[in-house]
Amino acid sequence: MSEQIKGWLAGRLPAEWFVGPAQVTVDRDEILVVGELDASELNPAGDDAEARTEALAGRIARFREQTREQRIQIAREAEHRFGRKLAWGARCGETEQAFTRLAVPVMTRLRQPERIVLDTLVDAGVARSRSHALAWCVRLVGQHSGDWLAELRAALADVERLRDAGPEAAAG
Question: Phi and psi of 140, rounded to 5°?
């Protein structure tokens, strides 16, 4: 399904929006489309890093405003077609911003040692709640084990491809 979504979006997104193909990330609930914007026209006076950062942020804001109606239409079509919400983001130079993202509740059962970890983060002011602490932990694991997670996702994609090519597919 992920490849179908990526293929549909490759054909549906206006070619002039991004300088290359959009990065599409798919999970069970959401499709995230992040595209690279042209930063070549941005040349703030001097080598002021703050001015460049603001120029990049402004370019992303301009893209967001100018494409709002089209993005909403594409998101509606994608939601109808694939049964998932579509979120957007843009990258310009070294600045990336995601907008219209979902925050999906996830239920979990934790034993006391894991709850103590979350409570410590809350008590120390690192997190506002157990839920926020758990999200913080997940982000931290994602940052520090990115290569391993990428390998795992690739292996899962191979399993999905093999499952799709299984005996039922050959018989059908």
Answer: -65, -45
What tokens does 122 get?
């809350």
CA angle 88, 29, 90 (to 5 degrees): 15
- Within 13 Å, how many C-alpha atoms sit on residue 44's CB side? 13
Question: Biggest alpha carbon distance in the chain?
Answer: 66
Helix (H) or strand (E) holding 2, with range, is helix 2-12
Q: Give residue-wise pLDDT tens across range 27-41.
A: 989 999 999 999 887
Asked if residues 35 and 91 have their Cβ atoms less than 8 Å apart, the reply is yes
Query: In the predicted model, is pLDDT for residue 86 greater than 70?
Result: yes
Query: In whole angstroms, what is the distance from residue 44 CA to residue 150 CA?
Result: 37
Q: Cβ–Cβ contacts within 10 Å for residue 19, how many?
A: 13
Please give the residue that has the higher pLDDT: either 94 or 73.
73
Enclosing H/E stretch for 164: helix 146-164
The token duo for 97 is 């911003």
